[in-house]
Structures are given as structure tokens and as C-alpha cells.
Amino acid sequence: MWRKSKADLAFDTINIIIMLLSALIFIYPIYFILIASFSDPNLVNTGKVLFVPKGITFIGYKKY
Amino acid sequence: MYGVLIAFKDFSAVKGIWGSPWVGLKHFRNFFNSYNFWDVLSNTIILSLYQLFAGFPIPIIFALLLNHLPVKSLKKTVQTASYAPHFISVVVLVGILEVFLAPSTGLLNVIIKALGGNPVDFMSRADMFRHIYVISGIWQNTGYSSIIYIAALTGINPELHEAATVDGANKLQRIWHVDIPGILPTAITLLILNTGRILSIGFEKAFLMQRPLNTTTSEIISTYVYKIGLLNAQYSYSTAIGLFNSVVGCIMLLIVNYASRKLTEVSLW
User: Fold this and answer.
1) A1 touches chain B (CB under 8 A)
2) Residues β-bridged to residue B22
3) Cα gap A5→A26, rounded to integer Å
4) Considering only CA atoms, which of A48, A53, A24 is closest in space to residue A36?
């Protein structure tokens, strides 16, 4: 196994940070749509729902 | 293709396509002389060029970085995460944009306010339309377009990488001197193909993101055709615009292909 050079170590560190950030950017809006789908619509519209679903309701999934 | 005939006729549904009278290039002249011709055309070209050139390098960079991730499990996770946005529909995407960019409660404005700035109504600002359009497009398509580059990177002979490592090249140098030359033909082929679609950029997203306040930048050829052709029922006129659109797209494809053949010896034919 090669010993990593300083440049490679820096590259790997920055790369991992960028990739983690981009994974967050890719996933968060989709995750938000998921939790918003079963949170209280009023709380969603006032920006209270950010990371965990609040005021859980399944009104969005009801047939009407 | 038969339907294209009505661009050169005064189409009326009663007389049918063949029975309508020929009017030559009347509808094309009307379009070129209409007062919003230059606005619509320049909006379309600016938006698609912006999308093309901002969206082109990102999947390549993403694929290169992903390819050099040292942690295999992280690589798989990030790759899977990056595909996810591709599978949500345009309507849902614009819904997400509405929620995140809402003037007082959207996440972006919450952050702006927390940093002490003034909230911005992104969705109805004409100068923001292009940035939102392009950045959300990048967000949605980076992962999926990077697949083809990752495949091209896998096709690079590992001996080249080994030789470069033995010669003392670090990762950045290996990306620059081994990976990028290896995927350049793929990148250029994709760039040429995308250029052909330059005037036919998606109707749905521009239409859904359109607000009365931002039509100065969001009115593109395809939304204009929809308004004129289907809402005002001027079928011949809108067919003429659509035909013009395709002809310009075809010419762009030929020009870029020619330029690429001269400059880099990579071309479609």
C-alpha cells in the first residue's frame, strides 16, 4: 500500500467534504417533501417544519 | 411531418389540412415582425446557452470527484443520492422551488434573514428566473448525467493510473492528465448532442415557473407557441414558429459539429 502524499490527503479530505455536502443537497429537498407530506399544512406553510415532521396528519393521503 | 404543411397555409379545421389555402411565408413574416419576436428569441437563446454551459462541466466534475472517493461505501451512497432528484417530476420540482424560495417562510429566505439580509421574492423576480431555472436543472440532472462519465472513467486503462502513480503524480495531476483526456471524446459528443436541443428547451418548467411579473425573462419560444397556438387557436402561426424553432436547432447542431470536427477531430459524423 502506498503511503499517501500530503497533496493526496488534502484532496481526499476536501473531496469527502464536498461529496457529503452534495449528498445533503441532493437528499434534503426530497426528504423535506416526504416529511411535509404528512405534517400539518399550516406548520409547513409557515416554515416550521424543517428537519422532523410536526403535527402529524395523513390528510394529504385521504381520498376526497 | 405532414402537419408541418399548415405552417404554409391558412389552416381552418373545416377545410382540413389539404383544403386550406396556401399563403407562402406569411406566418413566418408575421412572427419575425411581431413586436415580441426578439424578446422571445433572445430569452430562449440566453436561457438555453446558460443552461448548456453551466450544466455541462458540473456532471464531469462530479463524476471525477466521485471516481476518486477513497471510501467505497460513501461512493455508493452519494451516487444513489445523486440519482434521486432525476426521478421527481417537473411539477413536484417547481413545487419544491415554491416552498424553498417562498418570500417569508422559505428555507433560503430564513437563512438570508438569519444572516441579517432582506428576504427576496425569488419566484417573481425577472432577474432571478434564469438562475433558478438553471440551478434547479443542475440539481436535478447532475447525478443522472454523471452516469455516462462514470462509465467512461471506468473504461480508462488502470495501467495509465498505475504508471502515473509510480511517476509520482498526485490525484489532481492524475485527474488532469489521465482522466480528463480519457473522457474528452464522450464529453464533446454529449455537448454536440445537447447543442442541437438549444432552442427546444423544456416547455413545462418555464411554463410552471412563469409569473406575470417575470415574463420579461421567462417567455420563451415554447411557452409563446402554447399561448398563441393553443389558447388563441392560431394553429398555422404556432406551427410556423415551431418549424422555425426546429430549423434553427438543426443549424446549431451542424455548426457545433463542424466546429468540433475542425478543433478537436471529434464529431458525430
Assistant:
1) no
2) B9
3) 31
4) A53
Note whether B202 and B85 are within 8 A (CB).
no
Structural class in CATH, domain B2-264: mainly alpha
Reference B246, options B265, B222, B264; nearest CA is: B222
| Amino acid at residue number B131 | H
As a residue count, chain B comes to 269
Give the predicted TM-score (pTM) of the model: 0.85
> A31 — contact with chain B (CB < 8 Å)?
no
Q: How far is residue A43 CA from its own chain's centroid? A: 18
* Regions of chain A where pLDDT drops below 50: 1
- Total count of residues recorded for chain A: 64
Complex prediction ipTM: 0.81
Query: What span, in angstroms and rounded, lies between the C-alpha atoms of B13 and B16?
Result: 5
Partner-chain contact B165 A23, CB within 8 Å: no
Q: Which three cell numbers stand for residue B188?
A: 464533446
Q: Is A49 on the interface with B (CB under 8 A)?
A: no
- Identify whether the C-beta of residue B238 lies closer than 8 Å to the C-beta of residue B230: yes
Q: pLDDT value at position B147?
A: 92
Cβ contacts of residue B183 below 8 Å, gap of 6+? B60, B63, B149, B152, B153, B156
Backbone angles phi, psi at A49, to 5 degrees: -90, 115
- Give the residue on B whose Cα is nearest the Cα of A18: B65
For residue B53, give the nearest of B138, B180, B179 by alpha carbon: B138
Average pLDDT over residues B129-157: 92
